[in-house]
Design a protein that fits this description.
With 587 residues, the chain is an alpha/beta fold. The chain has three domains: 5-140, no CATH class; 182-207 and 409-552, no CATH class; 209-394, no CATH class. It is elongated. It starts with a helix and ends with a strand. The mean pLDDT is 87.
């Protein structure tokens, strides 16, 4: 490397050496090494021969080491701080240089020899606050966990190492979302427990859930980036294996869950001339494939139909050598539905229950509830053109529900506002404010997902194309606003009808908030233990010592207000044919 006398003189003068001595050192060095560390060592060697005291002063100055986020140890250089501030916060250069100089002065005053880049970042944040540059401070905040918290999690782990590692990443993404993605006032509403943003760790990375369509994979095979591709399946067992692979892969691109709708209808053409035993074995293959995955309870949902829906009756099934429509295979569809439910109820070889999937049967009417209904199975009325996905109902006709799902869910802490409001009108004002914030959260999520899908292209499964059409139907995704504490609100006011008034008010204002946004928002109830704990703990800190539930009181009267679904869990099998109950689970 050719000699640059300026580099040598600058390094010497930074350490407080005179220009005369720095010039002498420069004259002694003919060539410079390639690395900054080697240059510093060579200058120190020359100084030790010219002036041992100056060499010690130079060494003390340049011996400050920084442990970087790249897990390297490097010499301190305040210009790195300047560049980092400008790059990450867009701070004016002159201000960034002033802060970098102040940080260096403090480090040298404290005689620190070993310092970490997170500590330097914290020092910069303190100075940004001191200068009242709070917006820049927010941009410069580091997302992470305290060392103590990490130690406690490792020592007391109840999860596998992989799950624990994932948990650390989720904690950082939650912090990142609150500090960098969402506006300050919305982040404060979440932290103050006015509302709760579900799946916060996945907010900047992916949608919550999607209802998969099996047909493209039957016509073209499984062609998913990162796994071996396959051609169109010809046999039922291969279809079951492909279906499980699609669910498992799609879940990697989602925050909460993946599902299949019309599953038994789409697989039925491959079951023609199969014996009952063969069909049961194919159902078992599918369940075993899914049950090997460690996922949350809502990770996978399978919707089965008692009858072939009208819009599918004339559609030709993509089976090699056949042009018959799906209506031709109605008996095979019924047999597979029964076989899958039977295998699910029986459990594995040791009779242990399967963890996945959730199974929902769509029906028009159950003729013999006492004998036909099974514990642990969900039932949804078919004429509503809806399906179950990740614990909630996905609304819409075939073109709206398939290949779409739930983009984002937000829950409101109704009871908190009830206990703090002076009257019912004040309660509505608070709810309107939080609903408006929830819609804004959903608008931000939609914008962020457009970037992930089409700019960053990090959601390859969702944007793959079949038959010259993108797989997902992005504009058909729904969002859910959920309520916690409705039943307790009715008890507080001594008026069961207030729940209906709140929900009618909410539906009216939702139409106003969303009319110009092209955002589909439904009312629903998202049951989330983390949300419940967050609301109750926050309420307790404010002296509001009252438990919260997701109960809606009279289920028959209230379910009409929840297009996104509120499941009734009941042991009364006759309720399945109640005209006012759309969605229930037998327990």
């Amino acid at each position: 490397m050719s000699v640059s006398k300026n580099i040598i003189v600058k390094k010497c003068q930074e350490a407080g050496l005179s220009f005369w001595l720095a010039s002498q050192v420069a004259l002694e060095i003919d060539t410079l090494p390639e690395t900054n560390k080697a240059i510093t060592n060579k200058i120190a060697k020359v100084l030790s021969e010219l002036s041992p005291d100056a060499a010690k002063q130079f060494d003390d100055y340049h011996s400050i080491k920084v442990r970087t986020s790249r897990n390297t140890l490097e010499s301190f250089d305040r210009s790195f701080i300047t560049r980092s501030l400008i790059k990450e916060t867009r701070l004016p250069r002159i201000t960034a240089m002033e802060i970098a100089q102040e940080i260096e002065d403090d480090i040298r005053r404290l005689q620190l020899k070993d310092i970490s880049s997170p500590l330097i970042r914290e020092m910069a944040n303190v100075m940004l606050l001191d200068k009242r540059l709070t917006t820049y401070k927010t941009r410069y905040t580091r997302a992470g966990l305290p060392v103590y918290d990490i130690s406690k999690i490792i020592e007391e782990q109840k999860q596998s190492p992989i799950e624990m590692t994932t948990g650390f990443g989720q904690a950082m993404l939650r912090e990142y979302t609150l500090t960098r993605v969402l506006p300050f006032n919305i982040a404060q509403s979440h932290l103050n427990a006015d509302l709760f943003i579900h799946n916060l760790d996945n907010f900047p990375t992916c949608p919550e859930s999607i209802q998969n369509d099996l047909r493209p994979f039957l016509r073209h095979g499984v062609r998913i980036h990162g796994i071996p591709s396959t051609g169109p399946p010809k046999h039922a067992q291969v279809v079951a294996s492909h279906a499980a692979r699609v669910l498992l892969t799609s879940k990697q691109y989602l925050g909460k869950g993946a599902g299949f709708d019309f599953f038994n209808i789409f697989i039925s053409p491959y079951l023609e001339k199969k014996s009952d035993k063969d069909i049961e074995q194919i159902a078992q293959v599918f369940l075993y494939e899914l049950s090997n995955s460690q996922q949350n309870p809502d990770a996978f949902t399978i919707n089965l139909d008692n009858e072939v829906p009208d819009f599918l009756k004339k559609e030709h099934a993509p089976v090699p050598g056949s042009k018959a429509p799906y209506s031709h295979y109605s008996e095979e569809a019924r047999k597979f539905k029964d076989a899958l439910v039977k295998a699910f109820i029986q459990g594995d070889y040791e009779a242990k229950p399967f963890n996945h999937p959730r199974i929902c049967i769509k029906h028009r009417r159950i003729k013999k509830p006492e004998t036909e209904l099974q514990k642990g199975i969900y039932y949804l009325k078919q004429e509503s053109n809806e399906s179950m996905l990740a614990g909630n109902v996905l609304s819409g006709r075939e073109t709206r529900s398939l290949r779409s799902g739930t983009m984002q869910s937000v829950s409101l802490n109704v009871l908190k506002h009830v206990l703090k409001s002076q009257d019912e009108n004040a309660l509505y004002d608070e709810l309107a404010r939080d609903m408006k914030a929830a819609v804004e959260i959903m608008r931000i999520k939609k914008d962020v997902m457009q970037d992930r899908l089409y700019k960053d292209k990090t959601l390859g499964f969702l944007t793959q194309a079949y038959d010259n059409e993108e797989y997902i139907r992005f504009n058909n995704f729904q969002n859910i606003i959920s309520y916690y504490g409705l039943q307790e609100t009715a008890e507080y006011y001594g008026d069961s009808k207030i729940i209906g008034r709140i929900l009618r008010f909410s539906k009216k204002h939702l139409r106003e908030f969303t009319k110009d946004t092209e955002i589909n928002v439904q009312l629903g109830l998202v049951e989330d233990p983390e949300c419940l704990s967050h609301f109750e703990n926050s309420n307790r800190r404010e002296g509001l010592n009252k438990s919260i539930s997701t109960s809606i009181g009279n289920h028959e009267e209230m379910q009409q207000y929840f297009p996104a679904g509120k499941c009734l869990e009941t042991s009364d099998k006759e309720m399945v044919n109640n005209k006012k109950i759309n969605f229930l689970k037998i327990i």
